[in-house]
Write a structure and sequence with these properties.
By secondary structure, the protein is an alpha/beta fold. Helices cover 45% and strands 19% of the residues. This is Tripartite-type tricarboxylate transporter receptor subunit TctC.
């Protein structure tokens, strides 16, 4: 019996290092989880990140905090996630940060180092004008811009929105002036006070002022009307396919995170997306909760990258540093 006991002890000692290494991963998360958002407070990614953080904190029984890292078309937030070494840092972002940004900027990191976990919500985007404006449709906007060349100022959120609204301006041969802002919330505030005349921004950003009677929504860029604003026509339905734009908000993790941990996190995010309370709360700010598998999200992102590459080439955009 002694020799068998000795062999057993040798075998046990051999597997102990592997067991020790696997233990921390099986208990993920072990500490506070950070969700990095590329938007300013109040932007669509920030809203989604905070709602999901609240639910994930309960499910994981650890704190889940949101950090805002706006700027550089999402690259600052992505670098923060890829530079983290704690194994507990995720990205909560609009898809444009990983689809549009590579088409217009030279990246200081490898795209392959970031892996999709799950979609979280469908984001609606709206063309809005001041409530005091006489413009009530895209046709009115075109007429007003042609009547007063160079008199109308416009803003669109960075990435996809600014590219598609720029396409709308060019296709219709409009003389309008683009005004840049650091944050979409600042542009929407100025729009409500008629300092600028039209904006293309996330519906979640414009909706509170529209409901307060300070803005008028004249078009939705998504293929389908927004459930919370069913009377606002789609740009496609108004005959302007160049303004068609729909974005997913979703979660990402570094490639360095073990596959089974990413799968576990994806399952938790999908469960939160299916929570009736999350559906209700996102619906009130003009979004639709929608989770997905990593594979589905990856396929969608690949299609979108090809789409934005084509648009960037058609607009002769050369990726900038």
């Amino acid at each position: 019996m002694w020799i068998w006991e000795r062999l057993f002890l040798i075998a046990l000692v051999a597997v102990l290092p592997d067991l020790a290494l696997s233990q921390p991963l099986q208990r993920w998360p072990e500490r506070t989880v950070r969700l990095i958002s590329p938007s300013s407070p109040g932007g669509s990614p920030d809203i989604v990140a905070r709602l999901f953080a609240e639910k994930l904190s309960v499910r994981w029984k650890v704190g889940v905090i949101v950090e805002n890292r706006p700027g550089a078309d999402g690259m600052i937030a992505i670098q923060a996630v890829l530079g983290a070494t704690d194994g507990h840092t995720l990205l909560a972002t609009h898809s444009g940060a990983v689809t549009v940004t590579p088409a217009i900027r030279k990246l200081p990191y490898n795209e392959e180092d970031l892996r999709p976990l799950s979609t979280a919500a469908i984001d609606f985007l709206a063309v809005a004008v001041p409530a005091t404006s006489s413009v009530r449709s895209l046709a009115d906007l075109i007429a007003a811009a042609r009547e007063k060349p160079g008199a109308l100022n416009w803003y669109a959120a960075p990435g996809g929105p600014v590219m598609v609204f720029g396409e709308f301006v060019r296709n219709n041969r409009l003389d309008m002036v683009f005004v840049p802002y650091k944050a979409g919330s600042e542009a929407v505030r100025d729009l409500s006070e008629s300092r600028i005349q039209v904006s293309l921004v996330p519906l979640a950003t414009a909706l509170p002022l529209a409901q307060a009677g300070r803005l008028r929504l004249i078009a939705i860029t998504n293929p389908e009307a927004a459930p919370i604003a069913p009377d606002v026509p789609t740009a496609l339905g108004a005959g302007h396919p160049e303004l068609a734009l729909q974005g997913f908000l979703g979660f990402f993790a570094p490639k360095s995170m073990p596959d089974f941990v990413r799968q576990q996190i994806s399952g938790e995010i999908q469960a939160v997306a299916n929570d009736p309370e999350i559906h209700s709360r996102l619906g009130k700010v003009g979004m639709i909760a929608r989770g997905s598998t990593p594979g589905y999200y990856a396929q969608y992102l690949d299609e979108q990258r090809r789409h934005w590459d084509r648009i960037a080439r058609s607009q002769k955009i050369v990726p900038a540093d």
